[in-house]
Specification:
Elements lengths: L9 H9 L7 H11 L4 E4 L6 H16 L10 E4 L3 H14 L5 E4 L5 H10 L3 E4 L1 H9 L10 E4 L2 H6 L3 H10 L5 E6 L4 H10 L5 E4 L4 E5 L2 H11 L5 E4 L5 H12 L5 E5 H4 L9 E4 L6 H8 L10 E4 L6 H11 L11 H7 L1
Helix pairs in contact: 2-3, 3-4, 6-8
């Protein structure tokens, strides 16, 4: 959908078009409406999905439309990131989209005096790692008393690098009236705890980071499907011709949400234990009912909901009837989408 259709101001839309952004990614579309309405948002999203603009756009929109004249030069937004590399990427994204806003990026390993100088001159947005932000707070160089927006980017990674205490101390120092955005590829217990503790009750959860396993009968079909999907969807393949070490790396990447679709043959998928698969797709039907049941068992595990889709030709209808008879399960028929529907979903 065109960026002009989301109720953003002309100045924000013009800034996006100037940098060549004419449409929004799904995560950006899903976050923008509740964010502009003032709601706290939890987004489950990986790097590369467009999540930076998802939280940056509502912040930029508010700051640009409110104007900067006459207001205090204490920061109005703070973005916390687990690494200096990610912090610099976020700062760059904001600066490109809204160059009129004063932004500073703070992180360790560089002279703290230069960062203090920028803060004294006044900024709208602070992007930084929790350790350096905490240092600046302790030196009374960073005042969070007027913060309106807090963003936790890649919150699960902040846990991995030991920033839990710093993050909680920073959140405690921000006004309770703030609006908070939390983005994380996974939701370990600590992330769930800070969500419950620091975000408003009734916050919006945006989870577009679904995982699927797509089954084929042959290794060739798996390779061909991976090549076709790879142009649009983050996917990797698993079959018997792939070395065991590579298979284990692929499975770990899938568990870690580094890609969203695993394409596998039945043999390679035997014994898979992945608890959070949302969807199983039978791209090619198996030759026996037992394999069909085994495939479906890869989703809906550990008390979670799951879904399975079986694709078949008219010639394979007999297999659907056989599965229904032997398992007692029912199918809901979904027609092939038209070319118009396909274009609208792109």
């Amino acid at each position: 959908m065109d960026v002009g259709n989301f109720g953003m101001s002309a100045i924000t839309v013009a800034a996006l078009r100037k940098r060549g952004v004419d449409t929004l990614f799904p995560i950006q579309q899903a976050v923008l409406k509740p964010a502009l309405s003032g709601e706290d948002v939890v987004g489950r999203a990986r790097t590369g999905t467009g999540k930076t603009l998802a939280f940056a756009l509502p912040v930029i929109e508010r700051l640009l439309t409110d104007g900067t004249s006459g207001r205090s030069r204490n920061p109005k937004c703070i973005v916390l990131a687990p690494t200096r590399e990610l912090a610099k990427q976020v700062e760059n994204e904001i600066c490109i989209t809204a160059p009129s806003l004063e932004t500073v990026c703070v992180y360790g390993g560089t002279p703290i005096g230069q960062q203090e100088g920028k803060l004294r001159r006044g900024v709208d947005i602070v992007v930084g790692t929790p350790g350096r932000v905490q240092d600046l707070m302790n030196r009374r160089s960073l005042d969070l008393g007027e913060i309106e927006f807090v963003v936790l980017d890649e919150a699960d990674q902040m846990l991995n690098v030991g920033f839990e205490e710093d993050v909680e101390a920073i959140l405690q120092d921000c006004p309770e009236s703030r609006q908070t955005f939390l983005f994380s590829a996974t939701m370990p217990s600590w992330v769930k705890q800070i969500t419950k503790k620091f975000l408003k009750p009734g916050h919006v959860v945006v989870d577009l980071d679904k995982k699927a396993i797509c089954f084929t009968q042959t290794k060739r079909a798996a390779d061909e499907l991976t090549a076709a999907l790879g142009r649009r969807v983050a996917s990797e393949v698993l079959h018997g011709d792939i070395a065991q070490a590579q298979r284990e790396r692929t499975l770990q990447r899938f568990r870690d949400n580094r890609f969203s679709v695993l394409i596998a043959t039945d043999v390679a998928a035997r014994g898979l234990d992945i608890s959070d698969v949302d969807l199983v797709i039978h791209y090619e039907l198996p030759n026996d009912v037992e394999s069909f049941v085994h495939r479906c068992g890869r989703t809906g595990r550990a008390g979670q909901l799951g879904a399975a889709i079986a694709m078949h030709t008219d010639r394979e209808s007999y297999m659907i009837r056989r599965i229904k008879k032997e398992t007692g399960c029912e199918f809901r028929t979904i027609g092939i989408p038209s070319s118009t529907e396909t274009r609208l979903r792109r």
